[in-house]
Specification:
This protein is an alpha/beta fold. The chain is about 35% helix and about 20% strand. The chain contains five helices and five strands, in the order βββαβαβααα. A five-stranded mixed sheet has the order 3-2-1-4-5. The longest helix is centred in the middle third of the chain and has 12 residues.
Length: about 130
């Protein structure tokens, strides 16, 4: 089963304040609707942090899971430092940023939004919604 996740965090700073504290978690579990767990935003939170942690923990050490993330090293660092997850787990991991590099080592960028548009045809429309908000 595939599980895609992405942390939203406070601002990124250098060590020792790295990685930043998580404030939200986007999670898609194969066969289910995607969900965004928000707990640390100024408004419109929909859960407490422990709920999001418990949900991701279900998949973190499961050898039958394929974990997918963009710039996975960052997300792993957040999960290890702030949630106490194990650094090395039994799940298979796929980093879409590395995969984008392997597809086109000469690309101008490997950032999530341009890669999603380029390879999946998914324009970053949510940027407009965030701006309007």
């Amino acid at each position: 089963m595939k599980v895609c996740y992405d942390f939203e965090t406070e601002g990124i700073e250098s060590f020792p304040n790295y990685p930043p504290k998580p404030v939200g978690l986007a999670l898609w579990v194969e066969g289910q609707a995607p969900r965004y767990y928000a707990w640390g935003h100024p408004t419109e939170n929909n859960c407490v942090e422990s709920e999001a942690k418990a949900e991701l923990a279900k998949y973190w050490n499961n050898p039958d899971i394929e974990l997918i993330a963009q710039n996975m090293a960052f997300d792993i660092a957040v999960a290890v430092k702030h949630w106490g997850f194990e650094l090395f787990n039994q799940a298979t991991m796929h980093d879409t940023m590395v995969q984008a590099f392997l597809i086109d080592p000469h690309a101008a960028t490997y950032a999530l939004k341009p890669s999603a548009e380029k390879y999946l045809g998914l324009p970053p429309e949510e940027q407009d919604a965030v701006y309007d908000w």
